[in-house]
Amino acid sequence: MKPRLFTPGPTPVPETIQLMMAKPMIHHRNEDFQEYLSACHGKLKYLFQTSSPVIILTGSGTSGMESLVSSVMGEGEEAVFINGGKFGERWGELLTHYQITHYEITKQWGIPVSSSEIIDLITKNPKISTVFLTHSETSTGTYTDIKSITSDVKAKFPLVKVIVDGITSVGSHELRMDEWNIDAIVTGSQKGLMIPPGLALVAIQNSLIEKIKNQKSKSYYLSLQEAVKAHSGNDTPWTPAVSLIIGLKYALEMIEQEGIENVWKRHQLLGESIRRGVTALGLKLFSTSPSNAVTPVYLPEGVDWKKFNSHLKKNDGITIAGGQGPFTGKIFRLSHLGYYDIFDMVTIMVGIERALKACGYSFKVGSGVAETHNYLMENMEK
Ligand SMILES: Cc1ncc(COP(=O)(O)O)c(C=O)c1O
């Protein structure tokens, strides 16, 4: 059976990249490798739309988040984070772990934070130096308008830094780091970058780099002070994930060839096609502000998650994601992040219809598939 992966990370890896990563191993303190590293350093700036450095760390996305929390916050500085899902919550856990005084804005899952909520909190707590945001909250499929929030917050508090978890938004949503004045953004390799898990990419504005250089990280391995120093010499502090960095270079080339604006547009169209397809089946979307990376959908009354998921997997080789935290067993999540096209969207809709039918849900077979397909036919080729 052909395996079909529709999870919001890891995401499918293009065959050409798999082959490049399978080449004989090379040594990392060597010119061959340094050419790969330097090419990635250059191309990553295009991905993040920045002229500042993008640091490559070995570790999953969380390592990039941890590097920021442990290296950026100065003595006595306070932070705010948004708890509206599993990954927003992670900023809070990291701040607690590093004993940084912080404030939480709690949001109902599926509803994004607004600028005014953040501004009110900073007004009441002027020691807040940093806002930690999540651009695409993967547990709820919710998009936060970081462009407006950054602009509004900085208009009122010009010195406040905005740090963004872009782990599932980089590649799937418009993101212009310099133009939008964002101080740091982190992503992971196994998401929109279409390579296996194991790298975190951390883009940091030059002004924040200067701050980082003048203080000591609370982390040893994830110290951005060390990583920034090494980056300036086209090097890494420790042995990097060599094969992944080779894969990264080819993935960034694919993105360059397609054009970053086209990549964002493709994700918007694929996401919309799935939202329309599941709605046509009579299913209800979870988020009020949908992410273009992943679509969470309520399971209809009477459809059991375990049975539904097992049908997808055992009968059709399809892996999707379930709900997390309080929504375990209540929603399912379909990914359209990374290496996907029109055929993949039609395929996943066929799989969803087949599993719904097997679970006894009644609907007109083909209605979801037709909606997804028609929408993409009408809009994708324009
Ligand atoms: C938005 C977001 N933040 C953080 C993470 C954590 O990344 P990782 O599992 O790569 O450490 C994920 C992973 O799915 C994510 O989607």
Explain what you see:
The protein is of the alpha/beta class and 382 residues long. It has 2 domains: 15-258, 3-Layer(aba) Sandwich (Aspartate Aminotransferase, domain 2); 259-379, Aspartate Aminotransferase, domain 1, CATH 3.90.1150. The chain contains 13 helices and 14 strands. The chain has a 7-stranded mixed sheet with strand order 2-10-9-8-5-3-4, with helices on both faces. The chain has a 3-stranded antiparallel sheet with strand order 11-14-13, with helices on one face. Helix 4 (86-97) links the parallel strand 3 and strand 4. The protein starts with a strand and ends with a helix. The mean pLDDT is 98. Pyridoxal-5'-phosphate binds next to helix 3 and helix 4.
Give a brief rundown of this model:
By secondary structure, this protein is α/β, with parallel strands linked by helices. The chain is built from 13 helices and 14 strands. The chain folds into two domains: 15-258, Aspartate Aminotransferase, domain 2, CATH 3.40.640.10; 259-379, Aspartate Aminotransferase, domain 1 (Alpha-Beta Complex).
The number of helices is 13
Q: Radius of gyration, Cα only, in angstroms?
A: 21 Å
Cα separation of the termini: 34 Å
Helical content band: 40-55%
Number of strands: 14
Please state the structural category: alpha/beta
Question: CATH first level of the largest domain: which class?
Answer: Alpha Beta
Count of folded domains: 2
The third-level CATH topology of the largest domain is Aspartate Aminotransferase, domain 2
State the major sheet.
7 strands, mixed
Strand content: 15-25%
Average pLDDT figure: 98
What molecules are bound to this protein?
pyridoxal-5'-phosphate
Give helix and strand order, one letter per element, not per position: EHHEHEHEHEEEHEEEHHHHEHEEEHH
Query: What's the name of the CATH homologous superfamily of the largest domain?
Result: Type I PLP-dependent aspartate aminotransferase-like (Major domain)
Name the poorly predicted regions.
none
| Overall form | globular
Order of strands in the sheet with the most strands?
A: 2-10-9-8-5-3-4
Q: Which architecture name of the largest domain does CATH use? A: 3-Layer(aba) Sandwich
